[in-house]
Amino acid sequence: MAAAQLAIGESSNLAQLCLSYTYNFKDPMFVKYAAILAVIAQASIDSTKRTFAVDIPEEIKRIKTELNIKANGYPEFWLSIRKGFDVGRVNKDLKCPMNFVVSYKYPEVKPNSSTIPFERFVKKHPLTEKKRIARKIEALINKYSLELYKYNIKDDDAEQSEYLLLKADFEMMVSEIQRIVFTNKYVDIFYWLINKAFMIDGRAANNQRRDKIIIAKNKSLLMKTLYTVNAEAFLDCFASKLT
């Protein structure tokens, strides 16, 4: 996989270099190699799960030699995409669209109207005497969040066994929360959790730093959990129309 990653980067960079050369040299070789390198980049991506009748690293090496980069040099934009790149290897006579893109100064965009405050999208439900219950639910969600960080699982590459384990843990967490909040009377707890995660009124975090609040780091999990526990109570935390 590491070798494939290197090949993907190398072939993509060479393809970009070939495209830059096409704006400066009439040799059709550069157009041909740009197309070939695009195919090699795709083959490099697929090489982690299948084999091809071509030695990808050797093919990249061969094309790189034929491009005669030492004599032709690199376009100026290379200094922007490669940190610490040797300026002596840049050929300032090379012209290409990427040089323009890199040097272009985009005008500052100032919106005509201010953003809509988050608090206009919610219905406030002040929490009075249930803070202990709210903190217990928060702790359950935080514990599951930490499990996610431990496994570092993404939907597209998760191992089936680990995914099923986390799914079972999630269902267990939801079941435990449902035993605590089983009616819509607990909508104020839902709002308190949302308020703390998104810091809607600025005081929900109890003056804690945002980066120290676990529930604020995994807002999507919080929203999914609350909706799964009680969709009606969850939706009652949000305004049906802007006020």
Description:
The protein is mostly helical and 243 residues long. It has two domains: 102 residues, no CATH class; 118 residues, no CATH class. The chain has twelve helices and no strands. Helix 1 packs parallel to helix 3 and helix 7 packs across helix 9. The radius of gyration is 27 Å and the shape is elongated. The protein starts with a helix and ends in an 8-residue tail after the last helix. About 3% of the residues have low confidence.
Q: What class do helices, strands and sheet pairing give?
A: mainly alpha
The helix count comes to 12
Distance between the termini: 53 Å
Helix content: 55-70%
State which percent range the strand residues make up: under 5%
- List the helices and strands in order: HHHHHHHHHHHH
How many structural domains does the protein architecture include? Answer: 2
Q: What are the low-pLDDT stretches, counting only 5+ consecutive residues below 50?
A: 153-159
By DSSP, the count of extended strands is 0
What is the CA-atom radius of gyration, in angstroms?
27 Å
Characterize the largest beta sheet: strand count, sense, and whether it forms a barrel: none
Mean pLDDT: 81
What does the overall shape look like?
A: elongated
